[in-house]
Design goal:
- This protein is an alpha/beta fold.
- It has three domains: about 140 residues, Globins (Globin-like); about 100 residues, Beta Barrel (Elongation Factor Tu (Ef-tu), domain 3); about 140 residues, Rossmann fold (3-Layer(aba) Sandwich).
- Helices cover about 40% and strands about 20% of the residues.
- It contains 14 helices and twelve strands.
- The strands form two sheets. It has a six-stranded antiparallel sheet with strand order 4-3-6-1-2-5, with helices on one face.
- The radius of gyration is 22 Å and the shape is globular.
């Protein structure tokens, strides 16, 4: 169990907030420079987030949020849980934490120079290991839950690509079955799988992809968008074939969709962000549930995945849906009752007309879309407890804390 931070340590960490606001990104860039010089540690990271600067930025915001809330760590509970789930998906182990601590503390000392007094460094050492111990403890619990669940596993497990389906001009689905023909643990709608991949010319890669199938004990389905310049997504689209074997970790993630029979739910997505919602809809379509409103944004009809499935659910009265096409809705569309097609992007003004009391809002999609949508819901008075979201990239709750 972690030893609680003493008043002096918390006071020193809190006093470092101005320095982190000014130099946080420099510190995290330096930290990753040190950390990624170790090949074994480098292989644990999504290197695309290093190249585009997302990971250092997200970590800088997380460290700043930690310092700002050092006297109210309960405010960081959701962020800590998401980090723990991501770590489990990537098979982060206790022995990895000393490397991170050494790199972080070394970076603080390097960037702050003489301002990084022994007292400050001691306080940050204690603060880092306090948080590390919390994460290690929670991750141990999650690993054990995976091991104890029927069909569950820890570490990497071989899965075979059973089927590939073209869902749209940019999205393909990959159906995976365990190579050992044994059962798999049923995921919770909204969770993701993590992959350890070896891509020619790019080396070891790690990625997370949301599961788009309804919970089952024999397979998982991923639906992956081919991103411009995306090393791994392009490899999936251009190279992976039926029969190929992939290394996969157990389902993880705390973004779990749980529509209750007596609650109203609005599912808001853009692009490939609809995948966890497709999983949830597959789980609830034949079960009692409250009203479900599906709101989705796509570039054009040809890029919209699962359009026939959405239309089927609308026709059966399972959901009502609003679909936004940024390039313009088709002129000859004949929407079903309960299905509305819109030209342009979803706006905060339109969203404001949809806000209702006692409703839960689930948000998934590109980072800026999510930030704008979540802040728009909060501006309309929706309680934080009624807003649920999942970031795909390296962003975290810290961005919302910084933007609020």
């Amino acid at each position: 169990m972690s030893t609680m931070l003493d008043d002096k340590t918390r006071s020193i960490v809190s006093a470092c907030v101005p320095a982190l606001e000014a130099h946080g990104l420099d510190i995290t860039h330096e930290m990753y420079r040190r950390l990624l010089s170790n090949p074994e540690i480098r292989d644990l990271f999504n290197m695309s987030h290093q190249k585009d600067g997302e990971q250092p930025k997200a970590l800088a915001l997380a460290v700043l949020a930690y310092a700002r809330n050092i006297n109210n760590l309960g405010a960081l509970g959701a962020m800590v849980e998401r980090i723990a789930e991501k770590h489990v998906g990537l098979n982060i182990l206790p022995e990895h934490y000393p490397f991170v601590g050494e790199a972080l503390l070394g970076a603080i000392a390097h960037v702050l120079g003489d301002a990084a007094t022994p007292e400050i460094m001691d306080a940050w050492g204690k603060a880092y290991w306090f948080l590390a111990d919390v994460l290690i403890g929670r991750e141990k619990q999650i690993y054990q839950e995976h091991a104890d669940t029927p069909g569950g596993w820890t570490g990497w497990r071989s899965f075979t690509v059973r089927r590939i389906v073209v869902e749209s001009s940019t999205i393909r689905s990959f159906e995976l079955v365990p190579s050992d023909n044994k059962p798999v643990m049923q995921h919770k709608p909204g969770q993701y799988l993590s992959f350890k991949l070896d891509i020619p010319g790019h080396g070891s890669q790690r990625r997370n992809y949301s599961i788009s199938s309804a919970p089952a004990s024999d397979h998982y389905r991923l639906s992956i968008r081919k991103a411009d310049g995306g090393v791994v997504s392009s490899w999936f689209h251009d190279t992976v074939r039926e029969g190929d074997v992939l290394q996969v970790s157990a389902p993880a993630g705390d973004f779990v969709l749980t529509p209750e029979p007596n609650t109203k739910n609005v599912l808001i997505s853009a692009g490939v962000g609809l995948t966890p919602f497709i999983s949830a809809l597959g789980a609830v379509e034949k079960l009692p549930h409250g009203p479900i409103h599906f709101v989705h944004g796509a570039h054009a009809p040809d890029t919209q995945a699962f359009a026939p499935y959405v239309q089927k659910l609308v026709a059966e009265g399972v959901i009502k849906a609003d679909i936004f096409y940024s390039a313009g809705a088709p002129a000859d569309a004949s929407p079903l009752p309960g299905l509305a097609l819109h030209s342009g992007r979803m706006t905060a003004a339109w969203l404001a007309t949809q806000v209702q009391p006692d409703t839960h809002y689930w948000v998934c999609g590109p980072e800026q879309f999510m930030l704008d949508t979540i802040l728009a819901l909060k501006a309309q008075g929706v309680a934080p407890a009624q807003i649920h979201y999942e970031f795909f990239g390296s962003a975290s709750d810290a961005q919302l804390l910084a933007a609020a």
